[in-house]
Amino acid sequence: MPVNKIPIHIVTGFLGSGKTTFIQQILKNDQNAKTLVLINEFGEVGLDDLLVKPINDNTYLLSSGCMCCTVLTDLKDTLLSTLDLNKDTLVFDKILIETTGLANPASILSTLTQDMHLKGRFVLHGMTAIIDAQHARIQATTAPEWLPQVIACQQYVLSKTDLCQTNDMIYLQTLINEVNPDAIEVHVDDFINMQALFTKTFDVLPKSTFFLKSEQDIHAKTQSLLLSFDKPIDWLAFGLWLSLLLDQYGEHVLRLKGVLHLQGIDKPILLQGVQHCLYPPEHLPTPMWYDDISRLVMIVRGLNVADIERSAKTVLSHLRKV
């Protein structure tokens, strides 16, 4: 008796492009959606899965820490283990994978399409790339991961277009057409729910893209830093420190994301930034953890994380968790 294979859709894109926001917007419209969401993050603390989980209970953080490796044993083991969830009742009938912003999709595509154990139970449905229109020009030239992500996708969503000039949009569209002329631009509004995303069919499976020749060297220079504060934060002091850091070293800060507890404010805030840009804080309805510790995760390349920790400790020593 033939086995119904579970379709897998991949959402890729460089750090801070808006992958989690894209997934959140689709899931918000779902009613009893049977979608398993697997989120992979680079760093010791996961935040994106905590942002999606209130919308979709079937959301899990992949433990590998980085889906850019050529051997994806953790991904295979995770996918095979999820089949146990459907033993007694149908918990999910489709899977959405959000890759880390440093992922080279070539290794993911290779694992899903060539591994004999996975091929028998899963089928690759497609790949969507989220492209940060505001930072694409510089990311295309300074971030080696950006190009393989765009080359591998079949469709793409442009984020932060409201922050771009007309000339930047023309340049970006020209660049995308040059590296992947077959890719189709779509908008998040095109997918009223997750079923709409999976209902769309593709004539050809996503094509494999190239491996970065110096992939190990690149990621060796990329580090994740976790700053924790066990007391409510003085926003003026913290904002001054962060502004000075981004002003001087912003091009090396690939992404920052954190949940902060501020003095005089009851509810925590979600803080996000990419390179020199720090986006307006978002107030969260409830804490993401069962404690009042503020956590800021930074992914940097070409910076000494010890220097960042020392500067934070010097300026905010009375706030830092010992």
From TrEMBL:
Q: Which reaction does it catalyse?
A: GTP + H2O = GDP + phosphate + H(+)
Kindly name one Pfam family recorded for this protein: CobW_C
Transferase found in the keyword field: no
InterPro entries associated with the record: CobW-likC_sf, CobW-like_C, CobW/HypB/UreG_nucleotide-bd, P-loop_NTPase, Zinc-reg_GTPase_activator
Among its keywords, does the record have Membrane? no
Cellular component GO terms, alphabetical:
cytoplasm
Signal peptide (residue range): none
Where do the CobW C-terminal domain residues begin and end? 222-316
Keywords tagged on the record: Chaperone, Hydrolase, Nucleotide-binding
The molecular function terms in GO held by this entry are: hydrolase activity; nucleotide binding
Query: Which family does the entry's similarity section mention?
Result: Belongs to the SIMIBI class G3E GTPase family. ZNG1 subfamily.
Tell me, what does this protein do in biology? Zinc chaperone that directly transfers zinc cofactor to target proteins, thereby activating them. Zinc is transferred from the CXCC motif in the GTPase domain to the zinc binding site in target proteins in a process requiring GTP hydrolysis.
Please give the name of this protein.
GTP-binding protein
